[in-house]
């Protein structure tokens, strides 16, 4: 599939977003078909999924009330409920009853809120047919699969701007559509929403829509705790704006303005996660005598999320380094190896630009032909440095922004200024630096701190993985491309078989 997509670098494939849309939809239909197949062929390891006690709070409509109603299609409803396994149980339960138990606060509220709203509005007419809990599960499946399709499109738009090559961007996006963690993007997990808002936020940031980027990154932090790491992109942007204002423009006011603006944007990115921790503290700790409080309530910084991860799931530095966990390290080894190769490839290709964090661009020196990102070239097959490689929509946006900045005179550099890292089109791919640092930090965290087997889905939304795999897919010999597709295929088959039947997976 990958090798069949050949096009001139200056002429993008016809309707690339339609190709990605079809690929994303086909991949989701394939996953659903595999889940149905394995659920039919195999007997689930755990058959307790239909068990669902009444909500503890009377403020919520309980499952028992809906269960007493006559359901027209009980077998269909039971089949949907039986598919709710692993962490999906928590998300569905929270959407139905709210946060009842301490450990449930490990699951952030964006997905449960979306499920609850959709099931009580658009999908409400289905309750008499299949039951309320089945409707909740169905809403979760719809939300995540739609979010995944949109995330794939945003990855393509982001990749076109950064790589400046439609063909490489298209390959990367299709690889994402069939990524090894695909089972989680079609289940009731938060990966799809996180990927959508993380990739979308990064796209809007690089495109210049900073306020929209703040909103999207904040929503990514409502979906998964690691969404707060997206504040690092604003730090990278602020760092270069401060350098530009202080050392190039010689205006301290520009640097101060950049620092204040960057700090506010980072704060907004952190705010949803902090607010949710405060919500947990209010519900669990507030109003209790000191001797009745949970241990974490007495901490100087009472961070509920860290306590839950450590107390209930034994997450901590090197705590997973046990001989009995060796199979899980082997399960995570492909994605961790891919991440390491990706990081090393970029560092070796452009060490000067990488270690200077983009401040020292190797403009005059000869670049390695196997680099997938540099300041003025993007190599690999059919990759050209010309400005024409940008999509028409992106180029129109930059022209519009140039005219707007000329009129407003906001003090920040324009398209014509040499040192503007973020508005000059041929320099936009320097944002590969924070993307790579982000990937490295998450890979190290997954390996040293977390349950290592979750690394497959934890890293699955990182764009550099797919850019690197896209480049390797057409490298001489093409064996790397075959290896990635074999890896993805094996994990899709294995994941859909094990995960859907409540057997341990990643």
TrEMBL record:
Gene Ontology molecular function: alpha-1,6-mannosyltransferase activity; GPI mannosyltransferase activity; mannosyltransferase activity
Keywords carried by this UniProt record: Endoplasmic reticulum, Glycosyltransferase, GPI-anchor biosynthesis, Membrane, Transferase, Transmembrane, Transmembrane helix
EC number from the UniProt entry: 2.4.1.-
InterPro entries to which the protein is assigned, alphabetical: PIG-V/Gpi18 (IPR007315)
GO cellular component, one term: endoplasmic reticulum membrane
The keyword Protease belongs to this UniProt entry's keyword annotation: no
Subcellular location: Endoplasmic reticulum membrane
PANTHER family: GPI MANNOSYLTRANSFERASE 2 (PTHR12468:SF2)
Family: Belongs to the PIGV family.
Protein name, UniProt field: GPI mannosyltransferase 2
Organism listed in the record: Manihot esculenta
